[in-house]
UniProtKB/TrEMBL annotation:
It comes from Apatococcus lobatus. Belongs to the TRAFAC class translation factor GTPase superfamily. Classic translation factor GTPase family. EF-Tu/EF-1A subfamily. This is Tr-type G domain-containing protein. This protein promotes the GTP-dependent binding of aminoacyl-tRNA to the A-site of ribosomes during protein biosynthesis. One of its GO terms (biological process) is translation.
Length: 693
């Protein structure tokens, strides 16, 4: 329900506790019935949150009874997968997904694989469907909702074609087919324009000049269910598990930790000091940083400058890009992602948080500091979100929507108010209900004070008597040690979203990112999507050490051989050649609308964020409004989706981009829609409707 309570005012009025959270983890089960049309006869747009991992943990309970929040309902992970023997959820829909690989070269020969690969010497079932559709002359649409979108395009085309098609109704075609025929007949129709734009603007067309022509205009990857990790890679993984040597970090569980919070909350300072206290930064570096900060008249930024090394960051006194450092605590090998807090750099923060397993949320505890970072009632810009709405709120919402479940809330700067326990408790009392409504379990949150500049409560208990007198909880290092490392998702095709492209000291073009699924070794065949650029892994480095193997969960620098380097861009995805990530222009997504003042309408311009990719686009259809309590369709084709509402919409991007259904790969199936520096909505991809060439 919009206009909730507490800190956010965004969500359903019901708070939920851990028990309820577990209930809404089963929320997706409600959608299972929709696979059977008879079970939900009134339903035409069916939400399809599905999962492919692991057995179910507990019996289904209606989320309605649980009273879960709208964000939780919309975003939290759906229940784990059924076991074998039962059809995978979404299998039907997935087979229908269409993907486009402009100028796709022939597939690289598959690795040793127990599954007999399809030779592409005869038409595949998909090719047959395609040919059939081309004979019929229609664009391929998948779900009911997409069909509606197709019809809209076709109608637009028919409209543009004037009365020609309307004047010849007796040609034996359905209304939709007439529309599509008309759409093909005129250059100004919406469908053709969209197709043209895909061709003209796709990454592949823009960058693969001279590439061999595609063997076929479109290729689908093999079904996910057929994937088996190659035996040699499996052996290497088992060996790496035994020795704990590959992927860096020795035998300690690996964590990807992002530092979030409003601008100037103290993130870089705290992390700079933490690295020092853990012995990773020597006195010489600290001295150099102190000197540079003092010379620039910004002495208080000395610790922050250990991480903020770029000249513009030092000039502005704010973090611009995500700084990556690595360190070890007693129990964990940590890849630290220090995200920018300034609202101008939220896209960079999204790229950082998308790779993280857990987060530290820094909250400024100084008088007025917390309020400035959390306020959403500041003056309006006249459109969209409040102009100065705090990034504490936005970061927490984005972090949860990007899959982060474990978080430590670090209240900084309490030295400015005499280490007041009352201030600590006041902030916690406001923030906790908001975080619960956002979808965090209370048991997955830690609360602690820390002072970066003096190192209070970073490693070991506080020494400041005024703080030690009332706080006996975890230090920052303890909180990090308590985070659970994510499971390595190795039994899936390779996925590594490219976060950064840079020249190595040896002059080679390196790509860097976190392997989200699968495994690769030196010599592995890979493909870069978009562009369908095939190559071979030449070198792998983790923690600045050469490694032979990179598994899901490892952050690695990779160089590729035999690849057109112009295809290596942030937002592209390194994939297994036989199971590439879908490349689409449109996504259907179930979203929660955040703190917007003006509802989302059809045609709304957005920047679509998915993993490390960003594309311009627009909301091309509002498919349904969902009931906040039950998740069922409350209204088909609503005119608008307002603040706090959950709905299904379709976004069309200006160019093709790589994304997948959340039910297949969670990390690549989460999206955020932003416009004008504000996050409008967050959600998960439920379908990939797409026109075929
Ligand atoms: N008194 C006090 N000052 C602090 C504390 N933590 C940080 N500061 C100061 O706050 C200012 C901003 O700190 P940064 O570490 O740059 O903040 P940030 O959150 O990293 O900023 P962005 O990355 O730009 O969002 C600096 O002047 C710090 O010295 C603290 O616990 N107490």
């Amino acid at each position: 329900m919009p206009g909730g309570k507490g800190g956010g005012g965004l969500y359903a009025e019901n708070d939920y506790d851990d028990e309820e959270y577990d209930d809404f983890m089963d929320y997706g089960d409600q959608y299972d019935q929709y696979d059977d049309p008879a079970a939900a006869p009134q339903q035409t747009a069916k939400p399809s949150v599905k999962s492919l991992a692991g057995p179910k943990s507990k019996a289904t309970q209606p989320a309605a009874a649980a009273g879960a929040s709208a964000l939780a309902r919309c975003l939290c992970d759906p229940p784990p997968l059924r076991h074998s023997g039962r059809p995978q959820r979404g299998a039907k829909k997935k087979q229908q997904v269409s993907v486009i690989y402009p100028n796709a070269p022939p597939l690289a020969s598959p690795q040793a694989d127990p599954v007999q690969p399809f030779g592409f010497d005869t038409p595949s079932p998909d090719d047959k469907v395609l040919q059939q559709q081309q004979r019929k002359g229609g664009s391929h649409q998948l779900s009911n909702d997409s069909t509606a979108a197709s019809d809209r395009s076709a109608r637009a085309g028919a409209g543009a074609a004037g009365t020609a098609s309307a004047a010849s109704p007796s040609n034996g075609l359905s209304t939709s087919e007439q529309g599509q025929k008309a759409a093909r007949a005129t250059p100004v129709n919406a469908a053709a324009a969209e197709l043209d734009s895909m061709r003209l603007n796709s990454h592949a067309e823009a960058t693969t000049s001279g590439a061999p022509p595609a063997a076929t205009p479109s290729k689908l990857g093999r079904p996910l269910q057929e994937f088996r990790l190659e035996p040699d890679l499996l052996r290497m993984c088992e060996e790496a598990d035994r020795t704990g040597q590959e992927g860096g970090g020795g035998s300690k569980p690996r964590l990807h930790l992002v530092i979030l919070g409003h601008v100037d909350a103290g993130k870089s300072t705290l992390m700079g000091r933490l690295l020092h206290d853990l012995g990773l930064v020597d006195q010489k570096q600290v001295h150099r940083s102190k000197q540079a900060a003092a010379q620039a008249g910004k002495g208080s930024f000395a610790w922050a400058w250990l991480l903020d090394e770029r000249p513009e960051e030092r000039a502005r006194g704010v973090t611009v890009d995500v700084a990556v450092s690595r360190f070890e605590t007693a129990q964990r090998a940590v890849t630290l992602l220090d995200a920018p807090g300034h609202r101008d750099f939220v896209p960079n923060m999204i790229a950082g948080a998308a790779q993280a397993d857990c987060a530290l949320l820094l909250v400024d505890g100084s008088p007025g500091g917390f309020e400035a970072g959390f306020d959403s009632s500041a003056a309006s810009t006249g459109f969209g979100m409040a102009a100065s709405s705090g990034q504490t709120r936005e970061h927490a919402q984005l972090a949860r929507s990007l899959g982060i479940e474990q978080m430590a809330v670090v209240i900084s700067k309490l030295d400015t108010c005499g280490f007041s326990q009352a201030r600590f408790e006041e902030i916690k009392a406001i923030l906790l209900p908001f975080l619960r409504q956002t979808g965090f379990r209370e048991s997955s949150l830690r609360w602690l004070p820390a002072v970066g500049p003096t190192g209070q409560n970073l490693v070991g208990p506080p020494t400041e008597p005024a703080l030690a007198s009332w706080f006996q909880g975890p230090s920052v290092a303890d909180a990090i040690d308590s985070f659970q490392a994510a499971d390595r998702d190795i039994h899936k095709p390779l996925r590594m979203p490219i976060v950064e492209v840079f020249k190595s000291s040896r002059g080679a073009l390196c790509i860097s990112g976190k392997v989200e699924a699968g495994v690769m070794k030196i010599g592995s065949s890979v493909v870069v999507i978009p562009g369908y650029e095939a190559g071979t892994v030449k070198t792998l480095e983790a923690d600045q050490q050469v490694v032979q193997l990179a598994r899901a969960g490892d952050r690695v620098d990779v160089t590729l051989a035999d690849v057109n380097t112009s295809m290596l861009t942030a937002g592209a995805v390194l994939c297994h050649p036989d199971w590439p990530i879908p490349l689409v222009t449109r996504v259907e997504a179930r979203v929660l609308v955040l703190d917007v003042e003006v509802p989302i309408l059809r045609g709304q311009q957005v920047i679509l964020h998915a993993h490390a990719a960003r594309e311009q686009g627009h909301v091309s259809a509002l498919i349904s409004l969902l009931d906040a309590k039950t998740g069922q369709v409350a209204k088909q084709r609503p005119r608008a989706l307002g603040k706090g509402q959950t709905g299904v919409l379709e976004v069309t991007a200006a160019r093709t981009f790589a994304v997948e259904q959340y039910s297949d790969f969670r990390a690549q199936g989460r999206i955020a829609l932003r416009d004008g520096g504000r996050t409008l909505a967050v959600g998960i991809v439920t379908g990939l409707p797409c026109l075929l060439p």
